[in-house]
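Fold these two proteins, one after the other.
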Amino acid sequence: MSKEFKLFFSTNCTSGYENSVHEVCHDMNVVPFVYSGINLSVQGSSLDKEIRDDLYTAKVAVLLIVARSSTGEQVEVEDNWALEEKDSIVKSKIHLLVYASQEVSQTDIDKLNLPVDVIRVENETAFKNLSRKRFHH
C-alpha cells in the first residue's frame, strides 16, 4: 500500500485561497489538510492537538500570511497558529512553503524571522499557478 501524500495549509483568517488549495491538491492526487482562521487562541485546545497531528503527518506545510481577510477585514499578520511551529516544521523535515499576499509589508515579514524565503503572491490566481509548480511529491 502506498503512503498518501499529505499537504498542510494554514492561514489565520478566511483568505479566499482555500478553494485553490483543494483544487490543486485534487489535480495532483494530494490529500489536503486545510485550516483557515487558525490563530494563537487555539493553542492548548483539542483543536490544537488535531491541527498538530495533521501538520506532522504532512510532507509539505504551506503557510499563507495575509493582512486582510477575504471580506477585507484587517488581521494581525503574526496571529497565526502555524507560525509558532515554523522551526519545528523545518526540523521535522517537512517541506515548508510560506506565501504572503501583496498587502503584507516587508517589515511585517522580516519581524516573523522565517526560516525560509517568502513567496509573494499578487492574488489567488498567482497563488494557484505557483502552487501547481511547488506542491510536488
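Now the second one:
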Amino acid sequence: MFSFFKKKPDADTRKSDPRVFPRLREAEYIARLKAAGYRSEQLPLAEPLVGDILLLFGIDEETTFQLITPSDATSLGLSLDALRELAMANCAAVLGKMVVHTNAAVHRLTAPNATAGCSILFPKIWKELEADVGGPVIVAIASQDEVFYVQDRPDALAALKHTLIQEGYDSTENMLSAFLYQLDGDGWWRASNVQLDSIPG
C-alpha cells in the first residue's frame, strides 16, 4: 500500500530479537511508577518524544508486554541506540500490515501488536498519508491501538472531535496524548496550535 514498506532493509549482522518493540506512554507515566514505589533500577528506559509523549521499549511475549529497564537492555546486549534501532525495525515490519479506516472526513489507523501509535515514529509514512488525503493532516494519538487523523480544515476538525467522543475519548485524560500533532517543515512532529478543547462542537 505504501512505498515506505516496499524498501528492502539493508543487510545487517547485528543482534536481532523480533520481540523488541517501541511503546508510547504519557509524560506522567514514570512519575506514577515512582509514586507507586518503583526503585530507580526498576524504572523502564524512557526518553521524551514530542509533546507529552514518552518513548519506551519492551519485549512482546504475546500474552504480556514487559517494558525494558537498563539492566534488561544490558542482558540483551543492547545499547540504547541499538535497542531503539532494533525496536524501530521490528515496528516497521508490523506496520506493513496497518489499515486505514475512513469514515467521511475522519481516518482511523490501526495496526497489529498495538503499534498504531508508534506510527508517528515514521514521518515518511505520514507524508504518504498526507499525500493520500491531499494535504497536511492533524493527528490525534488516542491510544497505542488507534490513531485518528483529518485534513487541517475546520469542518474536518469538528468531525474529528465528534468521532473521538463517540469512540469513548470524551476527555483528553482518556487519550494517550492530550495534544494534537502535525508534521513540521523538517519532517518531524510538533504539537499543533489547534487543540481538542478549542474545537467548536
